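Hi, here's the filled form for the chain we discussed.

Project: internal
Contact: R.S.
Residues: 732
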Amino acid sequence: MARNPEGRRRSSRSRSGGKSSPVRIAFVIDGLVLVTAVLALAITMFLSPSARTWALESLAYGWAPVGLWLGALVFGLRYHIRFFARQWQWWVTAAAGAAIAVGVLSFFHPGFGIFADVSLGGRWGTILGGAPLSLGIAKLVIIAVLMPVVVFPRRVGPLYARAFEQVGQSARFVAEHPLLKRFRGAIAQRLKSRTKDTEQPSIPASTPVPTPEPPAVESTATAVAEDKPVQDNPPDQQEVVPEVQPDTRSEISAIDGFVSEELSLYAEPVDPSSVSNPPWLLPAADLLTAPEPVESNEEALIATARLIEDTLASYGANVTVPDASIQSGPRLNRFGLDPGWLTDDKGGSDEQQDGGVGGRSRVRVQAILARQNDLALALKTPTIRIQPTIPGESLVGLEVPSPTPRRVGLKEVVESQAFVDCAAKGGLPIAIGLDIAGEPEVLDLAGLPHLLIAGATGTGKSVCLNSIVASLLVSKSPDQLRLLMVDPKGVELTPFDGLPHLAAPTVQEFKGFTESLKGLLSLMQQRYTRLAEAGARNITGYNATAERRMPYVVLVVDELAELMLAGGREAEANLVRLAQMGRATGIHLMLATQRPTVDVVTGLLKANIATRIAFTVASQTDSRVILDVSGAEDLLGRGDMLLLENQSPQPRRVQGTFVDDGEVSRLVEFWRDPSQSRLPVLEVEPDEEEIDGEEIVDEEIDDAGTEDLEADDQVTGDGDTGDEDTNDSESE
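And the returned structure, exactly as it came back:
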C-alpha cells in the first residue's frame, strides 16, 4: 500500500514543532531573566550612590570590554557549551584582549570628577597599566606577547622562534659590519689620545713639582746667569708616576716572544753544554692526596637487584639481574637487566618459548624504559638513568646513585697502569676519572687531539679543567710541554701562575685572547715549514730524528662563551683553523664553557673537536648541542659527566677526578724550584710603534679574514689526512 507523502510531511512538521516549542520557551525565560537582571542592576546603581561609586572606581569605562566578554562567556556556556569546551583558547585570548583594553584606558585622566583620581580604566586598570607610562606599556606588551604562546604554543612558538632568530642575525650583521668596526676604532683612538693629553701625574701638595729634563737645562742656565746655585732634588724625593690601568701589552709581547724564541732555537746550532744538562725531574705522586678507601657492600647490591626484579615484575615486565652484571663505581652502581618472557594463558613448550612463539614473547626494551619513574620511586632515589644497551652485552643498563658515594682523587688515576703506559709512549696523558665499573679513564690528548668541556655552573667543569692540567704537570716537563692559558674571570687558572710550562702570563682580556690565537697560528705555520724541511709528517716523526725537540703546546681556555661572543667570526675562524691543522704540529686545544648554545659551540667547532665532556646541563637542548644526544640533563652533578670520544658512538658515564688547591700549590712549588729552572725567561719589551698601529692592523685583518680562511680550508684537508694516517700507523 502506497504511503501518503502529505502525511509524511505533516508528521515531520508535527515532530519539529514539538521539539521547537521547548526551545522557544527557554528563549523566553532567558530573556525575562536577562531583562530582570538589567533592571535590577540599573535600579541599584540609581538608588545606591555607593554602588555606583564602587563600579566607577573599579573599572570605569573598562566595564564595556569586560561586560562584553562576560556576556559572550555566559551566552556560550548557556547555548554552546560544546563549542566552548573545544575552543577555550579563543575565550582566554578574548580575556587577555579585554585586560589590555582596560590597561590602555588607565593611561587617560580627564581631570574632572571621579575619573581624575582613578582614570578611565579604574583601579583595576591601574594594576594592568597605570603610571609610570613605561612600566604600564611593558606590562601590557608582556601580556600581549606571552598570552598567544601559552594558548597556542604549537602555532605561535615557531613563529616567535623564527622572529627572534631573524632579529639576532640582523643585530649580528650590523655589529660585525666593517664600517661600524672602523667607526668604533676611530672613536677608541680619539678617546685614547684625549686620555693621554689630559692625564697628569697626581702630586701631593708637600712634594715639589718635578721638572722635565729639557726645562731643567734652561733653569740651570738661568741660575748660573743670576749667580745662584742650582739645587738638585733630594735623593729621598722621587717622581710620582701616575697609575696606569692594566692592559694586555705584556701578554701580547710575551706571546710574540714565545714564538720568536722557538724560531731562534731552531735557527741556532745545538749547544753541547745545554745537551749535557741533567734531565728535568718529574714530581712524585706523593705530592698528591691519597685516595679515599673503597668500601663495597655486595649484600646491599644483591638486595637492590632483587628489588628491581620485583618492581618490574609487578608492572608486567619480567627481567632478571645476573650477579655478574652488577658493577659498583665511586658514585653510581650499574645493574644489567636481562629481559624475560611474557606468557599468556595458553602457555607453550620450552622449544616454543625459546623461539618466541607459541604464546610467549620477549619483554620489550621500551616497556622497561617506560618504568623509569616507577623504579626511581621503588629505589628511593631522585633520579636514575636507563641505558637501552650495554656495549658488548645483550643487557639493559640501569644506573642507580650509590648510597655511599666517594670522591675520586687524582692520585689513584695517575698511579694507574693506563696512565703510566700513555706517559711512557710519549703522549699527553690526561686523567679524566673513574668509569662506572671503577676503572681509571685516561685519554691521550695528543691523539684526541682536542677537548671540549661544557656544563652548568657548579657542576665540576673548572675542577675537571684543573685536574687535567695537573695531570699534565705530573707527566711532562717544560721542555716537552708549553701551556697557554686564557681565563676571563681571572680566578680559575691563576693558581698555575709562575709555572715554567707557561709560554706567557695567563691571559684575562679579549685582546690577549685574539693575539694568542694569532701567535699560535703563526707558530703552526712555522712548524709546518720545519716539518717539511725535515721530511716529517707530524711532531712525533720530527722529534724522533731532530736534535732539538718540539714541545707540545696546549691552549687552555676557560669561559669560552665570553670570548666567542666578544670575538665573533674572527675568534671562531681562528679556533677552527687551529683545530683543523694544529694536530700535526703538536698544538692542542682544551676549551671549557658553561653556556653550551649554538652560537658558542658552533657546528664548525664541533666538527673538528670530536671528544667532548658534558656535565650537568639545564635542558635536553643543551645536552644535544654538546653530545648530539640527550642525557646530560639527568646527571648528578659534582663531577658526574658523560664522555664522548671519537672512537665510541655513545657517551660513557664517568666520575671526574677532584684536585684541591693544596695539590695544585704543591705541584706549582715543585716546578718553581730554582734548581728546576732551565728555560730562558721571556723578557720582551713592547714596541710602541706596534702598539700604536694595532687598530690599523686589526682592520686590515678583518678585511682580509675571509680570503685567508678560504685558502686555509684548502690546506687543511691535506694536512688532516696525512696526520690521521700517521696516527693510525702508530696505533697499529
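Let me know if anything looks off before we file it.
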